[in-house]
Amino acid sequence: MLKRRKTGLALTAAIGAAALAAPAVANATDYVVTTNNDSATLNSCDGTTNECDTLRDAVNAANNDPNDDTITFDSSLSGQTITLTAGEIGINANQGVGSLTIQGLPGHTPTISGDANGDGNHNKSGDPPDSRIFYVSGDGEPITLSGLTLSGGYAYGRNNGREGGGAIWAGYGTNLTVSDDVFSGNAASGDSSEYDGGAIYTDGALTVSGSSFTDNHADNGYGGAIYADRGATIRNSTISGSSAREGGGVATDKYSGPPSTNSFAIRQFVETHTPAQVQAKAATMNPQDFIRSTLDISDSTITGNTAKEAGGGLYSPTLLKLKNSTVSSNDGGFSGGGIESSGKYAQSQIDNSTISSNTALQGAGMDVGQFYGNVNDNNPATEPTVKHAVQSSISRSTISGNTAGGEGGGINVLYLAAGDRFDVENSTLSSNKAGGSDYTGFGGGINFSQEVSGELADGGAPIAGQFRTINSTISGNSATTGGGVSLGGDPQSQNPRVPSELSGPLMTDEGSIDFENSTIASNTASSNGGGVYLNSYYNAGSDAVGSPTLSLTSTIVGDNNAGGGGNDADRADGSSDGGLDSTDSLVENVGDAPFVQNTSTITGADPQLGALGDNGGPTQTQLPAVTSPVIDKGDAPARLNTDQRGQNRTVEGGAGDVTGGDGTDIGAVEVQNPAQNPQTVAALPQFGDNTPPVIGLKVPHSLSIAQLIRGFNVTVICNEPCAMTFRLYGSA
Question: CA 490 to CA 92: how far, in whole Å?
Fold first, then answer.
């Protein structure tokens, strides 16, 4: 019988003649692995010291131990490799067995390898064959792997019914944590079916922290490094150099159900009912029967990953939360170089992050497809259409330097369902590019793709929800057409999947594309629409050609270029309707785009913007000069208290408000100390040219009590090499 060393706690106290004893806490067992050997023959661990000859022996002991267990390694194994020659090691996570922690030594050692012959290749028929490293099954006891390197794991085909997970496969109901681990050179593959998760496949709860994933692959499936069917929480980790068919770095599913005969029925119920109905149904079900997946990533880097079809960095058909993270230099193949966010439950919440230098045919930075449709796409006429209203946002983030071969260098919006909303707030899209040798490029910064006739089951248009850009800058982007923003792709679709279909309308009556308190500037198109391009489409049931309408509120569209000349807004030739619906904005060079409505919009004036740079705040912006015509000529909704940088909105500059305006500056940036009433003062000592300098004062137009208390700036401006700023304070 295996003996174990146990630790516990008992407390006895005497009160008068009575003795009260507190129960002991759960016992724990510590096992120590002493060699880097592996064998199919299991041996018992030492009953006194709990020392085990092999890692396999230690895990086997823990599997049969009802206590919480920890497996550690003798210090002699530092820098060593444990090569599995007897196949994967199974971990029992059933309730009642107790938790298990496998704790490595400093320096992420030992390395545990599934490369049985050590040749660096993945061999299914070697002697012995390469194998997965761990498989975890059970119903919820926590499993933690920490401080290890897992390398060379290989999952081929259906290993005991388990597909994918080159290093780790964790089944339904498991609770897996990997902390401070290194995953490298793991793979999952098969001849035809999907084999997901080059390093990790999980259908349970997954938490990743402080770990790195490099050179992992699932080339026929999802998730080059990680596939998380129920989503995952990832913190302070790096995922790089990995590949898959979809989700080169990480992929997840939109929801998960138990592996049982009723799983399909549950999923079908979800597909055919609204979220409120699903929530009501879920209240009557086992909580484990339905879980909506969430991919929650923060303080992490996703870089240098590749997908054949979609989602070079991340593939998420469900809720994606991305915060304080970088998604860079990934290749998405067809779509979503950095991020692919598409599906009936797709939703994104991106904050204070950078999406840069990614590539794809469409949506190089991010591809968005929030749609609703039918359960059975092959028979749309007989299946119900269901709306799933969600709100997505990108805030305080930078999307830059991404390159799309076709459409949407920064963001490509393919679908936005009725009731959905997508907000880009306090963010900058810069130096993105759309277009290459094979396709005409549309929308260097943002592209809104047009409907391909017959593609949507309800016969509608792809933008049925509300897309808003608020307090944001679109600058320095380039494309063949629509350097900054393009509404609609080529009337002869650029989509290689349906090259012969004609495009239909971009928006339904419910849909809208709005730019509020934003700046679209310094973008370039080699053909048409340096700033904004409104493409043409064929109206349903007629041969009439129209274009969409873009809404501008307190927005700058200026300093853009097309075909070598100034061009800020352009509408496709031959269109009979569509244009700009503009209020309290500035459009420097209107081009061929007519105003369908114009309320207090400035045209033909230079906005006098500075170069894109650091003007404060988390993102780069273009700051207007103090003499810019945008000063005080805009309007801000009540909810908008700050500009893109986080500085005060509506700082009066004394330039006079427009009718219906509130004195806000047009554009993404509010000038904090606008020029006010320049005054010539008495001549000062003359310089060598005997010409007195022209001097003016720049002071706030109005002051609040708070500004009087904390002080305000008065700046002396002159045309000679002199500059002085005084800070004045009020007093009671």
Answer: 56
> CA-CA distance, 514 to 554, in Å (whole number)?
11
CB 545 within 8 A of CB 539: yes
Specify whether the CB–CB gap between 77 and 148 falls below 8 A: no
Backbone angles phi, psi at 59, to 5 degrees: -65, -40
Q: Computed over its alpha carbons, how large is the radius of gyration of the chain?
A: 31
Q: Quote the CA–CA distance of 233 and 178 in Å, as a whole number.
A: 11
pTM, two decimals, is 0.84
Q: DSSP of 528-541, one letter per residue? A: E-SSEEE--EEPTT
**Two structure tokens written together for 312:** 């070079």
469-490 residue pLDDT tens:
999 999 999 999 999 999 986 5
* Cα dist from 105 to 71, 147, 177, 236, whole Å: 11, 6, 17, 20
Task: List, as one string, the DSSP characters of 681-695.
Answer: -PPPSP-TT--PPPE
Compute, in degrees rounded to 10, the torsion defined by CA atoms 200, 339, 449, 334: -60
With helix as H, strand as E and coil as C, how does 172-208 read? CCCEEEEECCEEECCEEECCCCCCCCCCEEECCEEEE
What average pLDDT does this structure show over 612-618?
Answer: 95
The answer to whether residues 672 and 725 touch, using CB atoms and an 8 Å cutoff, is no
Q: Among 295, 173, 167, which Cα is nearest to 228's?
A: 295
Q: Chain-wide mean pLDDT for the chain?
A: 82
Mean pLDDT confidence for 395-407: 97
**Residues counted in the chain:** 732
330 pLDDT more than 90:
yes
Measured distance between the N- and C-terminal CA atoms of the chain, rounded to whole angstroms: 86
Residue 561 has pLDDT above 90, yes or no: yes
SS (HEC) of 439-454: CCCECCCEEECCCECC
| Cβ 132 vs Cβ 175: under 8 Å | no
Q: 3-state SS of the chain: helix, strand, coil percent to 5? A: 5, 40, 55
Please give the helix or strand (H or E) that residue 680 lies within, else none: none
Q: Which residues of 181-214 are buried (b: 16+ CB within 10 A; e: fewer)?
A: bbbbbbbbbbeeebbbbbbbbbbbbbbbbbbbbb
Question: Measured over all CA atoms, what is the biggest interatomic distance in the chain, rounded to whole angstroms?
Answer: 106
What are 71's strand-pairing partners? 31, 102
Residue range 372-393, pLDDT digits in tens: 654 334 333 333 344 556 889 9
Structure tokens, 467: 């897309």
Average pLDDT score over residue span 122-142: 87
Residue type, 528: N
Of 594, 598, 584, which is closest to residue 555 (Cα–Cα)? 584
Residue 69 near residue 29 (C-beta atoms within 8 A): yes
What count of other Cβ atoms lies within 10 Å of the Cβ of residue 72? 18
Tokens encoding 459:
């016969």
What are the tokens at 10?
A: 């008992």
The yes-or-no verdict on residue 517 having pLDDT over 50 is yes
What is the C-alpha to C-alpha distance for residues 280 and 302, in angstroms, rounded to an integer?
A: 37
CA distance 385 to 370: 14
Angstrom distance (rounded) from CA 286 to CA 273: 18
Cβ distance 394 to 350 under 8 Å? yes
Distance of alpha carbon 580 from alpha carbon 532, whole angstroms: 10
